[in-house]
Amino acid sequence: MKCSIPKGTRDFMPVEMARRNYIFDTIRSVFKSFAFEPIETPSLENLSTLMGKYGEEGDKLLFKVLNSGDFMKDVDFNQDYHKVAPLICERGLRYDLTVPFARFVVQHRDQITFPFRRYQLQPVWRADRPQKGRYREFYQCDADMIGSTSLLNELELVQMIDTVFARLGINVAVKINNRKVLAGIAEMIGAPDKLVDITVAIDKLDKVGLDNVRAELAERGLNPEQVAALDPVFALGGTAAEKLAALDAMFANVEVGRKGVEELKELFGLVDASKPACKVELDLTLARGLNYYTGAIFEVKALDVAMGSICGGGRYDNLTGIFGMPDVSGVGISFGADRIYDVLTELDAFPTDLNQSARVMFINFGAAEQRACIAFAARLRAEGVPTLVYPDAAKMKKQMDYANRKAIPYVVFIGETELQNGTATLKDMATGEQQTLDIDQLIARLK
Questions:
Q1: Is residue 290 scored above 70 in pLDDT?
Q2: What is the DSSP secondary structure assignment for residue 195, as one 8-state letter?
Q3: Contact in structure between 403 and 436 (CB atoms under 8 Å)
Q4: What percent of the chain has pLDDT over 90?
Q5: Mean pLDDT lowest for which of 203-207, 300-304, 342-346?
Q6: For 137-168, b where at least 16 C-beta lie within 10 A, e where not — what string?
Q7: pTM of the predicted model, to two decimals?
Q8: With 90 as the cut, is the pLDDT of residue 292 above it?
Q9: How far apart are CA 363 and CA 392, in angstroms?
C-alpha cells in the first residue's frame, strides 16, 4: 500500500519543527509580554456552535464529523443536503479559534475575570482547495481581549503585530478598516440589506480584481447604479486623515458610517502617537468576510513576499450573545503561523542555529569511556546544554559523519588518557581546534 496523507495536510521534519517552534515561541513571548493568559479548546466542537458564524462561504468549508453508531438508520437521504447534514453530523472540526473562544467565555463565565485577555496556539481545519499558502489543516496563534470596548485594546493589537514581525525580521503593512464604515457605505448606496453580500465580494478584491468584484456584486443583487456608487470609495486616496475627512462628507446623513469614521480617527490618533515601526494604513476595501465583526478590522501583509494575509482580526460586539451572554464586546487578532513560515522560508530569514538538535556530542569508545561520557553529559544537561552521547561504540568516522550531518558544533572525546585524568577533549567542528578540559571548564566553554 502506498503511504500518503490527505491533500492540504503536511508532515513536519525535525528542521521544520524547529523553525515552527521558533515562530510559536516568538509569538507566545509577545503575547505573554502584553499580559495575555493561555487557554486551549477541543479540536471538535458541536456543529451548532460553528454553523452560521462564518458566513455562507465559511459554512461550506466546515469539516463535519459523522456521528458514531447506526446514525443512518432513520435518515431520508432524498432531501436537501442542509437538512440531512445535521441528522448525520453533530460535530465538526473547529474552523477558527474565535468562535470556540466565545463559547468558552460563556461556558466558563463564573471562572473568568473581565476584561479577559487570552492567547491560544492550536490547529484549525478548513475544507478549502489546497494551494500555496493555503492548507486544510493549519495553526492559528490568537490573542483576544473580551469585556472592554476601549480602543486602547485595538492599539495594543497593532503594537503586538509590530513587535512580533520586528522580532521575526519581516517587513509588514497593517491595513485597518471598520465594519461600521462598510455598513455606512451599504446604507449610502441604498443597499443596507446587502452588507454581507458587499463584504463577501469586496473581501476578494486582492484575489480577483475590481472588475470581478463588480460582477459578483451584480450577481448578488446590486443594481448597476449601486455598484457604480461604490467606485468613489474604491478611488479614495491620500493619508488616513484625508480619506476619513472625505468619508465624513459622504456620511453626512449616515449615522453608522459616521460612528465608524469616529472610531477610526481615534484609533489612528493612538497609533500615530505610539509610533510603530511597521507601516499602518487605512484600507477602505478591507472587508474580511466573517459575519461576526462589528468594528475595527485588521489585515497584515508581508511587503517583500507575494503572499496572502499573514495576520488578521477585528472587533466583535456580540459574539457571545449567540451563546446566551449578550452585550460583551471583544477584539482579537490571529497570526497565521503557516504563512509566516512560508514568508520566512522565502526570505531565508530563519536563524541559522535552529537546525542544531545538540550543541555537543560525546564520541563513544566503549563501556568504560561510555560511563564517563554519561556522567559528563548529565552535568552539561543540568546546565542547559543540549547534549548527545552516541549510543554505539562504532567506528570513529561513522560517529564524526553523524555529528557533521546533524550540524553539531562540538564533539567531546573521553579516551584512555582523559579517563585516567578525569578530563575531556573538546573539538570545535568548524575550526578543528581542540582543548583538554575538566568538567567545570567544559561547562563554562559550552554554556
A1: no
A2: H
A3: no
A4: 65
A5: 203-207
A6: bbbbbbbbbbbbeebebbbbbbbbbbbbbeeb
A7: 0.86
A8: no
A9: 9
**Side chain identity, residue 140:** Q
Q: What is the pLDDT of residues 109-161, one digit of tens each?
A: 999 999 999 999 999 999 988 887 688 999 999 999 999 999 999 999 999 99
Residues in the chain: 447
- Cell, residue 84: 440531512
Residues above pLDDT 70, as percent of the chain: 95
The number of helices, as runs of H, and strands, as runs of E, in the chain is 19, 16
Could you tell me the CA-to-CA distances from 6 to 64, 80, 137, 370 in Å, in that order? 16, 27, 10, 44
DSSP of 283-315:
-TT---S-TT--SEEEEEEESSS--S-SEEEEE
CB 141 within 8 A of CB 340: no
Q: If you ran DSSP here, which 8-state letter would residue 131 be given? A: B
Residue 371: left (phi > 0), alpha (psi -120 to 50), or beta?
alpha
- Of 6, 127, 104, 116, nearest in space to 46 by CA: 104
Domains of the chain: 14-43+94-347 (3.30.930.10), 356-446 (3.40.50.800)
Neighbouring C-beta atoms of residue 57, cutoff 10 Å: 13
Contact 426, 412 (CB under 8 A): yes
